[in-house]
């Protein structure tokens, strides 16, 4: 230190000038290195976890050995986490290659000491030792004072605040929202630049002030500078508040975009133009952020402050914090009102997008479109590249429609307008949906002028629900909530009441049935309402009356008074229709002439539209257009005319008669009366128009056909009518064909698709018949045998060709005592008609040969008496039909079922009876041979005798199987359709115990086989010696037997078979008696009559052995006659007593022989 002594100091001028206070006495050289680690992280990761992982890894870095082994003991998980960090190197010297990864940083860290040893040029001064010049020379300058610690800290806070602001700005500029929206990043960049500029100015001011203070200057200048800063716009709180605003703005925009995450976001005007100008988009709906580019007042204050500071005009006047706070409160992203409006706009935008997602040529996007006149956001609408509106109000979801009233085919409703975007609504669209069809709905466009809408073309008695949506230029709004299901009326209103008869105290009206009716709905009655016509109609009560017909008389009215009358149809549980239009009628005065039976008259021309012309002549003939029911493979046809409306008001008539009786023509006459055809009209109708090649001796109707005529406006009868037309009996095709027709009628009555009740069985007979021929009597018996006894009162006679007063056929029917409804005179209830008059020409023939339809020039013939009388009789018939009580066909079907059972029973019994009779004949023959054994043996030891033997014959079946008993050699079930895999125990002839109910022995199911063959019997005559007969008999029983034993056995067998035969015949007789109890004409036979039929059958067929079977049947018939006499309590002859006594003795003897003791 000698060179620092007095007189040895070089540059002594430094001491004298006072420009230095210390001298450097030592310098330490070295180098500093900083490693900055960073990594990106997602919002789902925890910031604290990442920071903790990094700190744990960095703490291990000093553990690297100084020998240069750059390795750390880390787990695989720690290594994986460390490799996710990036590294930035900051140092006092430059590296050949800067580290990028954590692994690179470790290697550089390990190599740093060797770099300084090998190249000392890399070293820089680290520490400097100073020595005060005052110690060397008292004339040297010295540090007069230290700077106040509080001022230092204030200065440090300001600098730290500026540094922190810079760091936060850089972080926020990297945010996703700042990148997507350049407006946000531009504001942050501008703010950061202003802060950096102020920092430089502040640091420059500190550089000038601090040396002065250390040299003894006053600290006031520094205090003034710091105070100015703390009161300036650059104060830390204001800068933090500004950054909070930018963070809030970013968060708000981010939250909005998250809500609209399914919508495309465009980040530039060119990208927006690409969507708007795309020719595929007729309309573009854009959600526009309008305030992202708005300048902040705080930024303007910062710029202004720096400009004034540069000019040296800055003063201690503090910055107005209240103004700053007020400005912050008015920002769009902090306003609660603006937030609510923005979210509402976003929801409308998303709802509109959802409701139009299936619409083509419509695009949606989000963009930033600055507009100082709009706060926060707005909806922009573009049409074909042109901006229509920058503040478009999208319509919101309308309210639930209000149902005002319902009719059978329409609904009147009121639309509740949208609460938002009403000015944009061009119209409304109503949607409706029927219950049970969740995937189908119908749209109806309405007029925007009114909110009252009528939805038409609905179906009656069907439930619908309704919704609506607003329609604007680019699309439609969301649909409103659905209404509840509302059901339309079950049918249309009936026709308006029409005057039929007016009196001074009563009015009689009628009306047409409803023209439209719902599915599975039927009209069961009507409600007629009436009230007086007064000035105050709203307060006048309606009086009601109910009826089941389309005719009603209102009684108890006031004379010479006007009444309003209306009618509604009731449909049971389905409810009732709306009232018909009102009709105003006035009762007449007491002194006036009574108006009666004023009818509006029939108008049959309306039915021409429902018909097809079949004859073109001066009298036009039309055939009604019928609809055939879908009946597959049935022996009958069914047709309908019109549509079913009224339930339970359907009359059914069955027309029967011989061929040529005029049934078909009579049906056509009826249809003209029903449709209201008048004589003077130039047309007639036909229900049946058959063009066949059959002669008049053959029936023109081929099969049973039903015609269901549903009541409709214009009908002259107050009910629906079903006419069943049957083929004629007794034509040239004989009795076999008549039996076939009877079977066709049975099939129709028993078929579920047929009818369930009947009102009248009408026999159509010609008036001129003097007596019933055997064939006609047969026809009546055949038909009557079908019905039960309860139908007798519903049998009517329709007499055709009744041109005169006398009707001989009625005497014939009365003489035959046929069961039917009779009048007071004992004659059958009848109605007489003249068929031909209906289709006779009603105009005089014109001389013109022209085929023109215009017959206006022809002269009409006055209505003949026959027409009037025929139509009067038809009206009389229809009125009587209305009062006749319907008969359920349950008993009739029971008769048919019993007859079918009888037929099956007879089919089963006849083979058994035949076989039994043949077996009796065989036993008799064998007994006769054995009884004459001794006599025949004396004549010739090898004497042969002829004996009749019952042989079983197998006949193959072409199809199906038969169930045969192996024990009885008997076919028990001829056509067995049991599947092969099923047990034979399931066959129809087996009872619940598994025993057969058909075969003679009632054998078990195990004794039966299913075979493709049936067993029949025939009697053959064989020649055998007596010894052969005995041997065969003993072989059958398996033991030796004497002639007497054989005869005893034969007696037992004979008696058993004879009893079985009597039992079989009794079963048939019992079935016939049951028919006699329930059938109208059962054709029942007694047991003797039945045996007589069997005897005649044997005589006609004359099969082998018939003589012996006839003898056996006559003997059983004689026995039955005696038993019947005993049953009736009649006295029997001595000869008959002896016969029964001998039979009983033989029975007892046989039973004694067959007892177990005698057999043993």
Describe this structure in words.
- The protein is α+β, with helices and mostly antiparallel strands and 1160 residues long.
- The chain folds into 7 domains: 2-135, no CATH class; 146-259; 260-296 and 331-392, 3-Layer(aba) Sandwich (Glutaredoxin); 402-487, Immunoglobulin-like (Sandwich); 498-586, Immunoglobulin-like (Sandwich); 604-844 and 862-888, P-loop containing nucleotide triphosphate hydrolases (Rossmann fold, 3-Layer(aba) Sandwich); 896-957 and 1012-1153, no CATH class.
- The protein has 26 helices and 41 strands.
- The strands form 12 sheets. The protein has an 8-stranded mixed sheet with strand order 26-27-30-31-28-33-34-35, with helices on both faces.
- α5 runs parallel beside α8.
- The termini are far apart.
- Residues 1137-1160 are annotated as: Disordered.
Please write out the topology.
Layout lengths: L12 H5 L4 E9 L2 E6 L8 H12 L17 H7 L3 E6 L10 H17 L5 E9 L16 H25 L2 H5 L1 H33 L5 H12 L4 H24 L4 E2 L3 H8 L6 E7 L7 H15 L9 H9 L6 H20 L6 E7 L8 E7 L2 E4 L12 E5 L4 E4 L12 E8 L7 E4 L6 E4 L7 E9 L14 E2 L10 E5 L3 E5 L14 E8 L10 E5 L3 E5 L6 E9 L12 E4 L24 E5 L4 E5 L2 E2 L7 E6 L8 E8 L5 H12 L8 E4 L17 E6 L10 E6 L8 H17 L6 E2 L1 E7 L7 H11 L10 E6 L7 H9 L13 E3 L32 H19 L3 E2 L1 H42 L1 H7 L4 E13 L4 E5 L4 E7 L31 E4 L1 E13 H12 L5 H36 L8 H15 L4 H23 L5 H20 L2 H4 L1
Parallel strand pairs: 5-7, 6-7, 25-29, 27-30, 28-31, 28-33, 33-34, 34-35
Antiparallel strand pairs: 1-4, 2-3, 6-8, 8-9, 10-11, 11-14, 12-13, 12-15, 15-16, 17-18, 18-21, 19-20, 19-22, 22-23, 24-25, 26-27, 30-31, 32-36, 37-41, 38-39, 38-40
């Amino acid at each position: 230190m000698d060179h620092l002594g007095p007189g040895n100091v070089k540059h002594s001028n430094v001491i004298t000038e006072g420009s230095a206070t210390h001298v450097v006495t030592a310098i330490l050289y070295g180098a500093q290195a900083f490693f900055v680690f960073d990594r990106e992280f997602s919002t789902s990761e925890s910031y604290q976890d990442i920071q903790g992982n990094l700190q744990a890894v960095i703490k291990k870095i000093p553990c690297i050995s100084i020998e240069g082994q750059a390795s750390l003991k880390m787990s695989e998980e720690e290594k994986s986490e460390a490799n996710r960090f990036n590294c930035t190197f900051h140092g006092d010297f430059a590296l050949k290659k800067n580290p990028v990864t954590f692994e690179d940083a470790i290697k550089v860290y390990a190599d740093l000491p060797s770099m300084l040893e090998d190249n000392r040029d890399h070293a820089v001064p680290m520490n400097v030792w100073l020595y005060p010049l005052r110690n060397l020379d008292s004339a040297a300058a010295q540090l007069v004072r230290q700077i106040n610690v509080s001022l230092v800290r204030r200065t440090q806070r300001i600098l730290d605040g500026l540094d922190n602001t810079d760091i936060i700005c850089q972080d926020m500029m990297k945010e996703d929202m700042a990148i997507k929206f350049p407006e946000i990043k531009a504001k942050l960049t501008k703010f950061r630049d202003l802060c950096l500029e102020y920092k430089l100015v502040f640091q420059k001011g500190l550089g000038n002030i601090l040396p002065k203070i250390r040299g003894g200057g006053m600290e006031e200048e520094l205090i003034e500078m710091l105070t100015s800063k703390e009161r300036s716009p650059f104060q830390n709180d204001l800068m933090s508040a500004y950054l909070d605003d930018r963070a809030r703005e970013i968060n708000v925009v981010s939250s909005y975009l998250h809500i609209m995450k399914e919508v495309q976001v465009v980040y530039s005007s060119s990208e927006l133009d690409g969507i708007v100008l795309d020719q595929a988009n007729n309309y573009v709906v854009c959600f526009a952020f309008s305030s992202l580019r708005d300048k902040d007042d705080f930024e303007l204050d910062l710029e202004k402050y720096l400009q004034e500071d540069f000019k040296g005009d800055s003063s201690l006047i503090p910055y107005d914090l209240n103004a700053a706070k007020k400005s912050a409160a008015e920002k769009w992203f902090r306003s609660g009102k603006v937030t609510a409006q923005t979210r509402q706009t976003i929801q409308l935008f998303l709802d509109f997008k959802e409701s139009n997602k299936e619409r083509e040529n419509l695009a949606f996007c989000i963009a930033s479109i600055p507009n100082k006149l709009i706060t926060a956001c707005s909806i922009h609408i573009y049409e074909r590249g042109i901006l229509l509106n920058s503040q478009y109000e999208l319509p919101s979801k309308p309210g639930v429609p209000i149902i005002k009233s319902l009719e059978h085919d329409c609904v009147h409703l009121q639309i509740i307008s949208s609460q938002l975007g009403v000015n944009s609504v061009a119209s409304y669209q109503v949607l409706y949906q029927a219950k049970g069809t969740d995937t189908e709905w119908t749209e109806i466009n309405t007029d925007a002028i009114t909110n009252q809408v009528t939805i038409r073309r609905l179906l009656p008695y069907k439930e619908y629900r309704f919704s609506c949506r607003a329609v604007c230029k680019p699309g439609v709004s969301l649909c409103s909530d659905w209404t509840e299901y509302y059901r339309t009326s079950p049918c249309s209103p009936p026709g308006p009441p029409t005057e039929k008869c007016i009196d001074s105290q009563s009015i009689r009206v009628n009306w047409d049935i409803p023209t439209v009716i719902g599915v599975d709905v039927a009209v069961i009655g009507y409600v007629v309402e009436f009230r007086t016509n007064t000035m105050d109609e709203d307060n006048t009560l309606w009086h009601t009356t109910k009826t089941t017909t389309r005719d009603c008389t209102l009684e108890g009215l006031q004379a010479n008074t006007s009444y309003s009358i209306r009618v509604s149809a009731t449909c049971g549980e389905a409810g009732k229709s709306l009232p018909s239009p009102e009709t105003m009628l006035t009762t007449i005065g007491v002194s006036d002439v009574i108006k009666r039976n004023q009818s509006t008259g029939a108008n049959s021309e309306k039915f021409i539209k429902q018909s097809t012309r079949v004859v073109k002549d001066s009298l036009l003939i039309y055939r009604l257009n019928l609809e055939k029911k879908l009946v597959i493979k049935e022996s009958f046809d069914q047709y309908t005319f019109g549509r079913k409306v009224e339930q339970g008001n359907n009359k059914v008539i069955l027309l029967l008669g011989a061929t040529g009786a005029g049934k078909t023509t009579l049906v056509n006459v009826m249809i003209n009366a029903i449709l209201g055809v008048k004589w003077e009209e130039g047309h007639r109708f036909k229900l049946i128009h058959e063009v066949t090649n059959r002669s008049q001796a053959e029936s023109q109707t081929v099969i049973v056909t039903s015609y269901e005529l549903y009541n409709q406006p214009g009908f002259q009868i107050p009910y629906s009518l079903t006419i069943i037309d049957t083929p004629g009996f007794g034509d040239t095709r004989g009795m076999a064909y008549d039996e076939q027709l009877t079977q066709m009628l049975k099939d129709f009555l028993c078929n579920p698709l047929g009818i369930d009740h009947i009102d009248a069985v009408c026999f159509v007979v010609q008036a001129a018949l003097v007596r019933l021929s055997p064939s006609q009597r047969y026809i009546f018996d055949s038909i009557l045998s079908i019905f039960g006894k309860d139908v007798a009162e519903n049998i009517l006679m329709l007499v055709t060709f009744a041109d005169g007063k006398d009707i001989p056929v009625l005497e014939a029917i009365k003489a035959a005592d046929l069961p039917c409804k009779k009048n007071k005179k004992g004659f059958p209830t009848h109605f007489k008609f003249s068929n031909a008059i209906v289709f006779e020409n009603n105009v005089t023939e014109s001389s013109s040969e022209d085929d023109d339809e215009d017959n206006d020039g022809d002269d009409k013939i006055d209505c003949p008496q026959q027409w009037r009388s025929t139509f009067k009789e038809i009206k009389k018939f229809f009125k009587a039909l209305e009062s006749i009580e319907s008969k359920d066909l349950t008993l009739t079907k029971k008769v048919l079922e019993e007859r079918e059972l009888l037929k099956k029973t007879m089919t089963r019994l006849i083979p058994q009876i035949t076989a039994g009779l043949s077996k009796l004949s065989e036993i008799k023959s064998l007994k006769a041979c054995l009884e004459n054994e001794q006599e025949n043996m004396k004549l010739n030891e090898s004497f042969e005798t002829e004996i009749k033997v019952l042989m079983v014959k197998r006949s193959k079946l072409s199809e199906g199987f038969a169930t045969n008993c192996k024990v009885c050699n008997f076919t028990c079930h001829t056509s067995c359709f049991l599947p092969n895999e099923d047990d034979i125990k399931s066959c129809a002839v087996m009872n619940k115990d598994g025993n057969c109910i058909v075969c003679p022995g009632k054998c078990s199911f195990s004794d039966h086989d299913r075979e493709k063959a049936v067993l029949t019997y025939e009697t053959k005559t064989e020649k055998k010696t007596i010894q052969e007969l005995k041997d065969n008999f003993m072989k059958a029983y398996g033991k030796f037997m004497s002639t007497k034993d054989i005869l005893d056995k034969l007696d037992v067998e004979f008696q058993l078979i004879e009893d079985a035969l009597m039992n079989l015949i009794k079963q048939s007789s019992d079935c016939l008696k049951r028919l006699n109890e329930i059938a109208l004409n059962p054709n029942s036979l007694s047991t003797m009559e039945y045996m007589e039929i069997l005897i005649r059958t044997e005589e006609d067929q004359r099969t082998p052995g018939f003589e012996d079977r006839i003898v056996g049947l006559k003997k059983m018939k004689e026995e039955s006659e005696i038993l019947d006499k005993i049953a009736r309590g009649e006295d029997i002859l001595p000869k008959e007593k002896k016969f029964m006594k001998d039979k009983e003795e033989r029975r007892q003897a046989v039973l004694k022989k067959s007892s177990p003791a005698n057999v043993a």
